[in-house]
């Protein structure tokens, strides 16, 4: 039996529970949820999420300020997490996926993207297998995935660069927003790309 800190504390606090119940996977899986609900009710959801207003607010719940507690814990570990809209030293950023047919094509395209300052960083992930339909037939190909971190404003220029330097007739270029993260990394991303 794997004992978690929550399950071992519960077994000490509740001696009336049978050992078979404590070993059940249902009990162990639900215990962290119960603990989370207790913590959230103690801190008051309205303190964590001010937009959630409730007519049942209590003065005790209002006296606990949970947001500073959470921030100070992150800051004490050296993590400066931020939402993109809250960080004045960053710009709206995206992650772009591009697949390439092989290692050499991936190296060449990744280097040209960074050299042109169209992205701060390109990760090359080898060994993926893509299954897709092309011209009415199901295809399976080994490919390499490029994970590109850049400014949202550079997506058009990046897409044109990929299309001009890619051997596929219709290269994959798909983007997802970065909604937050390490503010120092996001600032570096901004400074490492063209305006």
Secondary structure topology:
Elements: H1 5-13, H2 19-23, H3 25-43, H4 45-48, H5 59-62, H6 66-76, E1 81-83, E2 93-100, H7 103-115, E3 121-134, E4 137-151, H8 155-164, E5 174-178, E6 180-182, H9 183-191
Antiparallel strand pairs: 1-6, 2-4, 2-5, 3-4
Keywords:
disordered N terminus, N-reg_PII/ATP_PRibTrfase_C, Alpha-Beta Plaits, 195 residues, N-reg_PII-like_a/b, chloroplast, Ion_tolerance_CutA, elongated, single chain, Protein CutA, chloroplastic, four-stranded antiparallel beta sheet
In short, what is this structure?
The protein has 195 residues and is of the alpha+beta class.
Task: Describe this entry's structure for a reader.
With 195 residues, the chain is an alpha+beta fold. 43% of the residues lie in helices and 25% in strands. It contains 9 helices and 6 strands, in the order H-H-H-H-H-H-E-E-H-E-E-H-E-E-H. The protein has helices at residues 5-13, 19-23, 25-43, 45-48, 59-62, 66-76, 103-115, 155-164, 183-191, and strands at 81-83, 93-100, 121-134, 137-151, 174-178, 180-182. The longest helix has 19 residues, at 25-43. The chain starts with a helix and ends with a helix. Residues 1-18 and 24-80 have low confidence and may be disordered. One of its GO terms (molecular function) is copper ion binding. Keywords: Chloroplast, Plastid, Transit peptide. Its main location: plastid.
């Amino acid at each position: 039996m794997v004992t978690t800190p929550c399950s071992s504390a519960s077994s000490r606090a509740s001696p009336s529970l049978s050992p078979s119940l404590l070993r059940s996977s249902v009990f162990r899986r639900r215990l962290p949820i119960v603990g989370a609900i207790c913590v959230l009710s103690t801190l008051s959801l309205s303190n964590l999420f001010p937009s959630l207003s409730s007519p049942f607010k209590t003065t005790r719940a209002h006296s606990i300020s949970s947001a500073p507690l959470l921030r100070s814990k992150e800051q004490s570990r050296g993590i400066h997490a931020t939402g993109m809209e809250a960080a004045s030293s960053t710009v709206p950023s995206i992650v772009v996926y591009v697949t390439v047919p092989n290692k050499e094509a991936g190296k060449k395209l990744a280097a040209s993207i960074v050299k042109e300052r169209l992205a701060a960083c390109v990760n090359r992930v080898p060994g993926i297998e893509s299954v897709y339909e092309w011209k009415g037939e199901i295809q399976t190909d080994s490919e390499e995935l490029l994970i590109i971190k850049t400014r949202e404003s550079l997506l058009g220029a990046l897409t044109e660069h990929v299309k001009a330097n890619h051997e596929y007739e219709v290269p994959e270029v798909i983007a997802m927003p970065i909604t937050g993260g390490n503010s120092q990394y996001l600032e570096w991303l901004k400074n490492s790309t063209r305006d």
